Amino acid sequence: MSHIKDLDEAHSTVIMVQVENETGLLGDSRDGSASAEARFNDAVPEDLIHFLAQDWEALHVDLQSNLNHFKTQDSPRGTWEQVFGKSPHTDELFMAYHYARYVNTVATAGKKAYPLPLYTNVWQNYVGEDGDNDFPVVVGGGGAPGDYPSGGGTSNVLDVWQRFAPSLDFIAPDVYLNDYASSCRKYRHRNQALFIPEQRRDEYGARRIWTAYGSYQAIGVSPFGIDTLEPSTNPFTRHYGLLDSVSQIVLDAQTRPDASVGFFFDELTDGIDSCKPVVKHWGGYEITIERCFVFGKAGPGAGMVIHLGGPKFLLIGWGFQVRARSLSPSSTFTGFLRFEEQTVSNKESGELRTLRVLNGDETRSGIFAMMPNEDPDYGGFPICVTIPARTMIAQLEVYSFEEADDV
Question: What region holds the DUF5597 domain (predicted)?
Fold first, then answer.
């Protein structure tokens, strides 16, 4: 860190530093060396017992589920197995406690030399519904400590890392084989910042970053091996380009609770759509976001919708459409008052200007607001009502007719 300070302090190009890489033990659930065995057979440190007992309600459910033996004791004291029971997850907890304290020592010294934000990354465990692949469990990282690095900051022990490595600003998940949204949700635990230091570099991975930014207020996403792709064919070029153009708008939305949602729609597999519509309630309206209509084969999509307040919404992205329905019991009709394609006129302030007004063809006469792909499949249909995407930014204002009260 002293070296980085010498080179960087005058320029501030280094914005954060990763401490270690995918910390943990592979091949076994616990260190079996003589010194580690001695510590394992010593009494569990009081600070850990006190933390788990006092913070029980705030602990991640994955940690709680591994502490059944601990929870049955009125005054848990003794060795690790006496307090937590004999289990690979007891081994994992032991490793996590000591790894976190060690990494915190390193991070504390680093911040003293050059006080930049620090984090460590996590090779995640996965099992069951949390997997987003067809690989065998062991190949993908596994569901047991030692198949994945035992003691690293997985959701099983994330609280331990957050408590005993306070010099780290956040714990960051690598997301390759895990369900993307689930990973984002887990690593917002205790409202820590979400940063994804490693993830898939292909289009499949690129589409998912909208979920991180739009739904979980990510501060950054970094595809692994980005330097091995040409910018002209790299899928992140398009995604990052659009995000960069609306960055101030997205940052402003992230400061407002539940003001935005991110989503993606993958390619159809054998004609089957596995991506469900996204439904939000904003400003007295039910907003449904779904894959964009086409006459031919439906394509992939990604983006975010930002609630601007009241009946106004900003749509960013492509390959999706938005429906609106008033939640008022007396509403008899919900329609689109305005649907306008926008372009960024001032990136620093997030100011937009209207590029063109979108009307009946672009809304199927007011049924839904379409944000098409760049090359929608017309399926041979001769009328081009599903216009290609241009700026991929549009503002939608909706309205509702209310049934008149009886006089």
Answer: 236-369
The stretch 336-357 carries a mean pLDDT of 94
223 closest CA partner among 238, 235, 215: 235
**pLDDT exceeds 80 at position 76:** yes
Strand order in the sheet with 301-309: 260-265, 301-309, 312-318, 393-402, 331-346, 351-357
Is residue 78 very low, low, confident or very high in pLDDT (cuts 50, 70, 90)? very high
Angstrom distance (rounded) from CA 239 to CA 303? 9
Q: Are strands 301-309 and 331-346 parallel, antiparallel or unpaired?
A: unpaired
Residue 49's Cβ-side half-sphere holds a number of Cα atoms within 13 Å equal to: 17
User: In this structure, which amino acid lies at residue 1?
Assistant: M
Alpha-carbon dihedral sign for residues 175, 214, 343, 293: positive
- What is the per-residue pLDDT for 407? 44
Going from the C-alpha of 25 to that of each of 79, 84, 88, 182, the distances in angstroms are: 21, 20, 12, 24
Model's pTM, two decimal places? 0.92
CA distance 293 to 314: 19
Q: In terms of Cα–Cα distance, which of 7, 15, 74, 82 is closest to 42? A: 82
Question: How many whole angstroms separate alpha carbon 18 and alpha carbon 16?
Answer: 7
Reduced 3-state DSSP string for the chain? CHHHHHHHCCCCCCCCEECCCCCCECCCCCCCCHHHHHHHCCECCHHHHHHHHHCHHHCCHHHHCCCHHHHCCCCCCCEHHHHHCCCHHHHHHHHHHHHHHHHHHHHHHHHHHCCCCEEEEEECCCCHHHECCCCCHHHHCCCCECCECECCCCCCCHHHHHHHCCCCCEEEEEECCECHHHHHHHCCHHHCCCEECEECCCHHHHHHHHHHHHHHCCCEECCCCHHHCCCCCCHHHHHHHHHHHCHHHHHHHHCCCCCEEEEEECCCECCECCCCCEEEEECCEEEEEEECCCCCCCCCEEEEEEEEECCEEEEEEECEEEEEEECCCCEEEEEEEEEEEEEEEECCCCEEEEEEECCHHHHCCCCCEEECCCCCCCCCCCCCCCCCCCCCEEEEEEEEEECCCCC
